[in-house]
Design goal:
Number of strands: 10
Number of domains: 2
Order of helices and strands: EHEHEHHEHEHHEHHEHEHHEHE
Strand order of the largest sheet: 4-3-1-2-9-10
C-alpha cells in the first residue's frame, strides 16, 4: 500500500490527486487530527508525532509513505530518512513534499524570485529556502507565515470576505518583493488555490501543490520498479484519523470529492 500522512485532513488534497493519477494502487490515509496543528509545535514534538505515524502506517502494510504535511516534511523527514529508516525499515521509503514543490517552482519561475507561504513551523525551518538554493543557488526566496489560514479553511470560511482580506494581508509583502512564482507550502492551501491566484494577480505563477506531488510520485515509482512491484493494488482505500468530529467528516468528504468512512485510531 501507499501511505499518506498529514497532521490533519489537509493531506486529502494530495490523496485526491494520487487517486486520479495512480488509481490502481491501494491507499491508506492517516490524519493526526487529535494533535493538530503541527505548525505551532516544537521540532522535537513534530518529529516524535511523525515517527509514530510513519511506524503505524508501516505496521499496517505500507511500503512507501508520503509525508503530505509540509511541517512534518520540513521538521522530521531528513532525520527519519537518514537515521530512523535504516535502523527500523531499511527496505521501505518515506518521501516528503518540499523537494517536488521546489523542483516545480524552479521550472516555472521566470526571474528566479520565488515566494513561499506556509505554517509558522514550515517557514521558520527555512526548509524551502535550503531546498530551492540547493537546486539553484541564485534563486531568491521570500517567505511568509500564514497561521490563520488553516483554521479558517477547516471552519469552511474559504469563500468569506474576511478570509480574502487576511490572505491579501499575508500576500502583500511577497508582492512588494516582486515574486514571479508562489509555492503553497501547506496541504490545506489548494482549497484556496483560486483565492491565492486572485490575491497575487495573473503575473505571478501559482501551481496546485497536490497535483505536483502526485505527478512526482508517479515519476518516482516509474524510476523505482523495486518499490512499485511491492505495492498492493485495489480500491479498498482506508482513511484513518486520531480524532473525529462532524466538521472533520464534512471537510474530508468535500475535499476528497466523495463519501468516505473515517476510522478512529490511536498513535503513541
Amino acid at each position: 500500500m501507499i501511505g499518506i500522512f498529514d497532521s490533519g485532513i489537509g493531506g486529502l488534497t494530495v490523496t485526491r490527486e494520487v487517486l486520479k493519477q495512480l488509481p490502481e494502487y491501494q491507499l491508506l490515509y492517516l490524519g493526526d487530527t487529535a494533535r493538530l496543528p503541527y505548525g505551532n509545535r516544537s521540532q522535537e514534538l513534530i518529529y516524535q508525532f511523525t515517527e509514530q505515524a510513519v511506524d503505524y502506517l508501516f505496521k499496517q502494510g505500507c511500503e512507501l509513505v508520503i509525508l503530505a504535511c509540509n511541517t512534518a516534511s520540513a521538521e522530521a523527514l531528513r532525520k527519519i530518512q537518514q537515521e530512523w529508516l535504516p535502523k527500523n525499515y531499511p527496505d521501505r521509503r518515506v518521501l516528503g513534499v518540499i523537494r517536488p514543490l521546489a523542483e516545480e517552482a524552479i521550472k516555472v519561475s521566470r526571474f528566479g524570485r520565488i515566494g513561499v507561504v506556509g505554517t509558522r513551523a514550515t517557514i521558520s525551518s527555512e526548509a524551502y529556502q535550503r531546498e530551492l538554493r540547493n537546486q539553484k543557488s541564485e534563486i531568491r526566496v521570500f517567505s511568509q507565515a500564514c497561521p490563520l489560514l488553516v483554521p479558517l479553511i477547516e471552519e469552511g470560511w474559504q469563500k468569506r470576505p474576511e478570509t480574502m482580506k487576511i490572505l491579501r494581508n499575508y500576500l502583500r509583502p511577497l508582492k512588494q518583493q516582486k515574486i514571479d512564482t508562489l509555492i503553497l507550502g501547506c496541504t490545506h492551501y489548494p482549497i484556496l488555490l483560486k483565492q491565492f491566484q486572485n490575491g497575487v494577480g495573473k503575473s505571478i505563477k501559482v501551481f496546485d501543490p497536490a497535483k505536483v506531488v502526485a505527478e512526482k510520485l508517479k515519476d518516482y515509482l516509474a524510476r523505482h520498479p523495486e518499490i512499485k512491484k511491492k505495492l498492493v493494488k485495489g480500491t479498498n482505500h482506508r482513511y484513518l484519523v486520531t480524532d473525529m468530529t462532524e466538521i472533520f467528516i464534512q471537510n474530508a468528504e468535500a475535499w476528497l470529492g466523495q463519501k468516505i468512512k473515517l476510522e478512529k485510531v490511536e498513535l503513541g
